[in-house]
Amino acid sequence: MEEETETRVFLSNEQHQEEEEEEEEEPSLPRSMVISLYLGYFLARWGARTWEFSVALYMIYLWPNSLFLTAMYGVVESGSATLFGPIVGQMIDGMSYVKVLRLWLVTQNLSFIVAGGAVVALLVVPDLKSQNFPVFATLVVLTNLSGAIGVLSTLAGTVLIERDWVVVMSEGHSPAVLTRMNSVIRGIDLSSKLLSPVITGLIISFVSLRASAITFAAWATITVWIEYWLFISVYNGVPAIVQSDERRSLRSSQSQAEETDSASSFYVPLLHEEESYRNTQSRSRILRILERISESSFVSAWRNYLNQEIVLPGVSLALLFFTVLRFPFYPLVLFVLALVSHRIHIVSSRYSFGTLMTATLEWKGIPTYIIGIGRGISAGVGLAATVLYPLMQSRISPLRTGVWSFWSQWTCLLVCVGSIWVEKEKIASYMLMAGVAASRLGLWMFDLAVIQQMQDLVPESDRCVVGGVQNSLQSALDLMANLLGIIVSNPKDFWMLTLISFATVSLAGILYTIHLYRIRKHLFHLEKIPLLNNFFAS
C-alpha cells in the first residue's frame, strides 16, 4: 500500500508540468455553475455561522448570572457531532445527491427556524424562567435539540460540497483547479465566520435581541429555496456530478444485493431449530452485544476511516482542535459585544468571550480593543493562507506543503511557550497574541493541504464516510479541549494549558512527519543544500 501511495503522489507531481501546458486545451468548468456553487455554499454557511455566534448571546441573556446554558449547548452540539458524525457520513454515502440536498437543506433550515422561533418565544417574556420554569426549560431544550440537529445537517452539507462535489467537478482538469476551488470554499467559510457576527451585533445593538432571532429565522425560511435552486442547477449543469451520482446508485444497489445474499445464507441454519438453539445458547450475552456493536454503522464508519491511507494526516489535523492557543475566529466579536453589552447583562466579562485565552488576556490587564485588534490580525492571516496555499502548492505537492506549513505553525507557537518565562505580564501577553496570530498562516494552509490529500487519495465510494468521521473526531477533540478549560479554569494556570496544547500540536506534527517519511522515504533533499552538495557529489 505504501508503494502504491508513493507512486500516486509522485505521478501527480511528475504530471503537474505537463498538465499545466495542456491546461489551455482542457475544457473549462462552466463559470456559471462554479459561481452558483459558491453562492449556494455562502448562503448555507452564513446561516450556520450566524447561529453559531448568536446562540451564545441568547443563552447569556436568558440566564445572565451563569454560563450554564451556554456551556450546556456547547456540550450538546459537540457531543452530537462526535456521536453521530460517522453515521451521517455513512448515511449520505448511500443516498443520491438530490436526496442528500433535500435532506441537508430542509433539515438545516427547518431546525434553525424552530430554534429561532423558540428563542423568540423565550425573549417575548423576559421573566419566563421565574414565572413558568417548566415552559422555560422546554423551550431551552427545544433550542438545544433543534440547534444540534441543524449542526448535524450542516455537517452533511459540508461533507457533500467540500469532500465530494468539489472533487467531482475538478476531475479531468489540472490539480490547480481543485486547489483553487478548495481555497475559495475555505475563504467563503472563514469570511462568513468573520462577518456574520458583525451584522448580528448591529441588529442587536440598533434594534433588539428579539429582532436578531426573527431575522435569523426569516433568513433560514427564505434562503432554503434559493440554496436548493442554486445547488440543483449545479447538479443538472455539470455532467460529471450526474455521472458520479449514477455510480453511487449502482454501488448502493450492489451493496443491498450483497446484504440480501448474506441474509439468505444465514437462513438455512435457522431451519434446524435444535442446532440454532444450541449455537445461540453457547454464546454469551456479552459476545452477542459485542457482535452487534461491531456491525453497527458507527463502528463500520470508523473501521473504514482507520483503513485509509490518509489516517495519520487526518488524526494530525484533528489533534489541532485540542488546544487553547487560538482566538475564536471572531475578530470583531468584542466590538459587537461592546455594542450589545447594554442589552445583555454580562456578569463575568472575563469568561463571556468564549475562550480561556481571552479571559487570561483580560485578567492580565490587556485592553479589550487590543484583544480585538489581535483577533483581527489573526483573521487576516488566516484568510491570507487561502491565497498563499495555491501558490505554494503549485510548486510543491500537497504532501510537502503540509509539512512545511505545519512546522511553520509550530515554530510560531514557540513564541507562546517562551512567553511563560517572561516576567513582565504585558510583554508575555503580547508574545502570546503574536505567536497565535502568526501561527494561523501555517494552520490554515495545513488544513487545506490535508483536505486536498483526502480528496486525492480517498476512494470515491468512501469520501462521505471518511469526511463524517473526520468531523466527528475534530468535534470530540474540541469538546475535550473545552472540558480541559473547565478543569483548569484559573487564568493563573494558563501556562499549564499552553504546555499541554503545545505538546498536542507537537504530537500532531510528529504523526504527519511519520506519514511523510513513510510515503517519500526521506524528509529533506540534503543533496540540494549548497554546503552538502559537494559531499553528496563525492
Overview of this structure, please?
- Its main location: membrane.
- This is Solute carrier family 40 member.
- Belongs to the ferroportin (FP) (TC 2.A.100) family. SLC40A subfamily.
- It comes from Arabidopsis thaliana (Mouse-ear cress).
- With 538 residues, the chain is mainly α.
- It has a domain of 216 residues: Up-down Bundle (Growth Hormone, Chain: A), CATH 1.20.1250.
- Helices cover 81% and strands 0% of the residues.
- The chain contains 23 helices and no strands.
- The relative contact order is 0.13.
User: Mind telling me the C-alpha Rg?
Assistant: 25 Å
Largest sheet: none
H-E string? HHHHHHHHHHHHHHHHHHHHHHH
Q: Give the overall form.
A: globular
Function: May be involved in iron transport and iron homeostasis.
Subcellular location: Membrane
Family: Belongs to the ferroportin (FP) (TC 2.A.100) family. SLC40A subfamily.
Pfam families: FPN1
Summed up:
This protein is 81% helix and 0% strand.
How is this fold's topology laid out?
Blueprint: H1 2-14, H2 16-21, H3 31-62, H4 68-93, H5 97-124, H6 128-131, H7 133-170, H8 175-206, H9 209-237, H10 239-265, H11 267-271, H12 273-282, H13 285-294, H14 297-306, H15 311-319, H16 333-340, H17 356-363, H18 368-393, H19 398-418, H20 425-457, H21 463-487, H22 494-520, H23 530-537
Helix pairs in contact: 3-5, 3-7, 3-8, 3-9, 4-7, 4-14, 4-21, 5-7, 5-9, 7-8, 7-21, 8-9, 8-16, 8-18, 14-21, 15-21, 15-22, 18-20, 19-20, 19-22
Function: May be involved in iron transport and iron homeostasis.
Region (Disordered): 1-28
Pfam families: FPN1
